[in-house]
Amino acid sequence: MKHLCPHCGTRLHIRTSRAVSLTSRELYVRCPEEHCAYTGKAILSIISTIAPSINPNPLAYLPVGRTRVLPNGTGQLSLLPE
Ligand SMILES: [Zn+2]
């Protein structure tokens, strides 16, 4: 995961984190640039499902994200005579 310091643009380091819910963690971040030394908190959350779990937790409901829409009528000509 790459997140940049909002003050100097250096890549932030995650010092520690704690769970705030089943799908979210609060991250404590620190800028390693010694002339900046910014520290802050961030939230990391799972917001949707791309592929469902083989062994799903019933308490972990996450909506299915946008899926690729297959073309309905492609307009492609048939190669076989009708
Ligand atoms: Zn910084």
UniProtKB/TrEMBL annotation:
<protein>
    <recommendedName>
        <fullName>Zinc finger Ogr/Delta-type domain-containing protein</fullName>
    </recommendedName>
</protein>
<feature type="domain" description="Zinc finger Ogr/Delta-type">
    <location>
        <begin position="5"/>
        <end position="49"/>
    </location>
</feature>
<dbReference type="InterPro" id="IPR007684">
    <property type="entry name" value="Znf_Ogr/Delta"/>
</dbReference>
<dbReference type="Pfam" id="PF04606">
    <property type="entry name" value="Ogr_Delta"/>
</dbReference>
